């Protein structure tokens, strides 16, 4: 059985090629490329919702902890810049708490990038371990007559702990 219709009577008149074999419209190709780029950008973003407020409060708690006395009247900022010395562990904690608890958290909150949320979660987890270790060292390894951990050190550890679990929740949910 042959098709007795002329080429003009068949669907796609004037063309012997199937619709999917035809050349695409350049405007349609540009739109398709743009939509693929939008999808990639959306996939890299997070929407923390109410957890963003908790993360902001945790960041403020860490900053407040850095302003209060940590060891023997020296504040966290003084330990951070090297103006005072209290041993390597509290100083290490000042670096990690500032880098991850303040800087990375602020960047993750402002940009809403999923990768920064992960960096904040992992970095705050490392900082939490450093902070607990710093508190422990001030209670057990400090020389006789040296004060224990100050309120700023304890507050910074609590703030970093709050940030650790908040960022882990945000990064794992990826809404």
Question: How does this model look, in words?
Answer:
- There is one protein chain.
- With 175 residues, the protein is an all-alpha fold.
- The protein is built from six helices and two strands.
- The protein has a two-stranded antiparallel ribbon with strand order 1-2.
- Strand 1 (69-71) and strand 2 form a beta hairpin.
- Helix 2 (51-67) packs antiparallel against helix 6.
Could you write a compact summary of the structure shown?
Helices cover about 65% and strands about 5% of the residues. By secondary structure, it is mainly α. The longest helix has 27 residues, at about 115-140.
The major beta sheet can be summarized as: 2 strands, antiparallel
Number of strands: 2
Shape estimate: rod-shaped
Uncertain regions spanning at least 5 consecutive residues: none
Average pLDDT level: 82
In whole angstroms, how far apart are the ends? 58 Å
Provide the gyration radius in Å.
29 Å
Descriptive keywords:
175 residues; two-stranded antiparallel sheet; 2 strands; mainly alpha
Give the topology, please:
Elements: H1 26-43, H2 51-67, E1 69-71, E2 74-75, H3 76-81, H4 88-111, H5 114-140, H6 151-173
Helix pairs in contact: 2-4, 2-6, 4-5, 4-6, 5-6
């Amino acid at each position: 059985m042959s098709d007795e219709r002329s080429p003009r009577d068949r669907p796609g008149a004037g063309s012997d090629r199937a619709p999917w074999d035809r050349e695409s419209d350049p405007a349609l190709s540009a739109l398709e490329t743009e939509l693929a780029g939008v999808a990639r950008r959306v996939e890299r973003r997070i929407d923390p919702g109410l957890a963003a407020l908790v993360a902001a409060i945790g960041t403020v708690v860490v900053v407040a902890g850095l302003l209060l006395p940590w060891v023997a009247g020296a504040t966290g900022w003084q330990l951070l810049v090297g103006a005072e010395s209290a041993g390597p562990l509290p100083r290490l904690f000042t670096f990690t708490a500032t880098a991850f608890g303040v800087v990375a958290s602020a960047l993750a909150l402002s940009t809403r990038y999923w990768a920064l949320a992960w960096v904040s979660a992992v970095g705050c987890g490392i900082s939490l371990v450093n902070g607990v270790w710093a508190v422990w060292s001030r209670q057990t390894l400090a020389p006789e007559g040296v004060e224990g951990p100050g309120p700023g050190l304890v507050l910074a550890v609590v703030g970093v702990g709050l940030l650790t679990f908040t960022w882990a929740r945000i990064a794992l949910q990826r809404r």
